[in-house]
Task: structure prediction
Amino acid sequence: MNQGMPEREEQAPMPAAGPAGLADGASALVRARAGKETVADIALLLEGTYPYIRGGVSAWVHQIISGLPEIRFAVVFIGGEKTMYGPAQYAFPPNVTHAETHYLMSPDAPSKVRARKGNRKAFLEMAEFHALLRASGQSGYMPDEKMAGALAQLGIAGGVRREDFLHSESAWSYITSQYRERCTEPSFVNYFWAVRAMHDPLFVLADIASGLPPVGAVHAISTGYAGLLGAMIRLRRSIPFLLTEHGIYTKERKIDLAQATWIHDHSDDVGNTLHDEMGYIRGMWISFYEHIGRIAYGQALQIVSLYEGNRKRQIADGAPAGKTRVITNGIDLQRYSTVLQRRPAEIPAVLGLVGRVVPIKDIKTFIRTVHALVNVRHDAEGWIVGPEDEDPAYAAECKDLVASLGLGGHVKFLGFQNVAEILPQLGLMVLTSISEALPLVVLEAFASGLPCLATDVGSCRELIEGRTEEDRALGVAGSVVFIADPEGAARAALELLNDAGRWHAAQKAGLERVRRYYNDRLMFDSYRDLYTQALDNPALPSSPSAGAGFPSPENSPTMEAS
Amino acid sequence: MSGIGSEIRKILEHDSYWSVLRAYGYAGLVSGGPWVLSILSIMMIGILAVSLGVAQHEVNAFQICVTYLMAGSLIWTGGMQLMFTRFAADRTYAGAQAEVLPNLFGVLLVTMAGGFAWAAPFIFWFFTDSLLQQLLLLSNFIVLSGMWITLIFLSGMKAYRRIIGNMATGYTIGIAVALLASRWDLNGLLLGVLTGHSFLLFSFLRHIVRDYPGKDLLRFDFLEKGRSFYSLFLIGTLYYLAVWVDKFIFWFVPYTSEAVVGPLRASIIYDLPIFLAYLFILPGMAVFLVSIEADFADQHERFYRAVREGDTLMHIEYRRDRMVYAARQGIYEIFKIQGLTVVLCLLWGRELLQVVGISPLYIHLFYIDVVAVSVQVLLMAILNVLFYLDARREVLFITTFFFATNLGFTFATLHLGAETFGYGFAASVTLSAFLSLFILSHKFNRLEYETFMLQN
Result:
């Protein structure tokens, strides 16, 4: 559930006053509409993040809740296994009026093992539902009543209860017929357990969906199980469902699955050429995540991504374009203006990488970049700022590399630090990551007057070069380089560090860009609007998957052909 | 695969009639051995004692005493036998073999001390002849109780050869001591079997202690909730109760029985034919061992291996079919061989009774008893298959049914008259066999479903 964001110090934004009129008006509206019988206006559906796990997404969630004090939030946390999580890492702001914690792998009441027939008719409907899912293909379109029908069957007496799924004859005959029909994997026992592991959490979700006290709307902060829960709640209660994705959940699951060693493909035994035929069970998991992703896209009123690249990816994954929109992350500019004031006149010849020491950040390329740079500028340094405990083996490899390159005096591992203290001492923020979404460190760097050098991943190019025409006109706030190209990165760094004019132009562009487009006020306003419109959405269209969400300034409500 | 299966298969590999005969002979010895050896030795002691001048009524009393001791100890330990066999198998499978031996001592302590606790007052209250007789009866009972436990445990270890060897030695010693002590009549004969059974108990124990590691001396894990199977305890107790209940009824209904010694009564009319008939289950037992404990067990193992080790569903079903085939073959083979035995008994029954010296008046009872015990072998085989499938609930149901019908039907025959004697037991065991066959078939049909969907 790591969203590819740097592990960082939690932001504690001031409660946003916002344009007073709008905020109060929205708040009044919200209260009038939903306040009387609901425990919260918005239920946030969080999979494996806030409030138990620190990270970019959790920091963002905390920021949103704190930034919109007039909205009452319910926090619905869905974890894997109870043992995976410690105590809560965040103290809820006062506007969190309800919180629930659920674990998909350890349902509260273990089902009783007893032979049972199971509702044959309900299983037939499930078969039909699966057939429709397969037929729906890329568009993800399915008649709403079918979807609602199937999802509503879960966990209720007349439909498919968890114990029916686990122990009934109907379930057995359905599972075996599917295996006969489609599975190319030789091991039945593997198939059987994969099907179980895949569907068991759905019954927990169904329980959450029916047990959640009344709320005005739900907002899932990823697809996957959280997104599916949102779709279930939307179908059961006809309340609006909003979806925000930081990373792209389905893509991340695919990467996980490709590397998963707990799935035993027969291809594992035969050989491991790179493009070996993927095992059936691996494929089944991937299409499971694709399907639940599409179900969430189909049922969501609005689908929010952090930047344009991810929006396109969502559309490619089946999100109706008309419902997608970008709301970028924002940061508290006030906080960083003081950091800017502490910046020395000289440009320090220090490259800073702020992030966890893990392979996805490609710390080794950063070290090689410093190595290449030091050959030309002997005073150059590279600081790696971030925790090393997540992948100690990789951290050790990085330190070995530093030693073998003879960079002892030039590369420093500073561990976890207060970023505000570090930023003024850097001459360039560097990101060598092989994958990113919208890295907050870039925004922080810009806001504190520090240009950035980043690989061309995620939204980094948008951040450095600008997104729209107008944005681009502000200039380039650093440099974009290829991934795994230390020579290129060193060259680009040198150009900026050695050319004060260029460096200051980049600083100016960054400051202006973050002020204009990545101000947290803008983000709060956007979400305030989103929530208000959702809560104010009078008659919910019976089939949001067929139509677009409500109009937004960026997106005309074009309908995605389905 | 069980040890005995491979041994038998080795013999069969020679592929000649002689080897087949040898294989079944061996199997028969192994499976029916303990039972036949004990019956034969008791009869032998009786015959030899009479020839040594012991009074016939003393010999009769001796045989009745031994019968009661056997019945009582089997019923008393039947539950623990099954429960502990399962416990030992589970612990061994879990790699905790070291826990087995201390628990065996635990079981022995519980059954023997427990047996003492209730049998001592019983014996001292009801038997009034002499203290020596009371002590002999009591120690016989306690030693037998311990011996059944060690015997079933050794059978579980598939140490059939040792069992037979020890039994032969033990009963030889028993017979010798009984004859040497025959001048003390009943007490002397009782001392003989006590010596024989004690020898068996300690030599069995010696084998077990030698083969099983163990650090602690005494443990009672087998009683722990979650690790023990009280349903098995119930099954074992009910099974032996079911097998003996008709005899007890005939012993204690006044007009079919007579008092022999102390409170013990016997039913000459009922006992002789049935114990004679039990000798004729030997062919069925031999086939049972070869077809169920070897062939079926082998197929059963392959089926679960296919499930565990990730075969295709089609292959799992194929293995299921093979397993069902093996079970069906086994049951069918037992049916055939016992059918043949019954036919032979019908043909030569009169001559047989004459040779043994039983009145031809018993011939009809003998006929029906041979049929009944033959069906009982079938029932045993089916129950054993159900045990392999871990169908404890079903077996409990069947044994309860067996017990209840034998009880009810036997009382019914008492009212219906002498010509129906024996039919109660026969009807009960036949119905139970049909019921178990029906349940087994149902179980087989749902095997994959239950295997996958009803696991914990």
Observations:
- Residues 188-211 of chain A form the longest helix (24 residues).
- The radius of gyration of chain A is 25 Å.
- The domain at 333-517 of chain A is CATH 3.40.50.2000 (Rossmann fold).
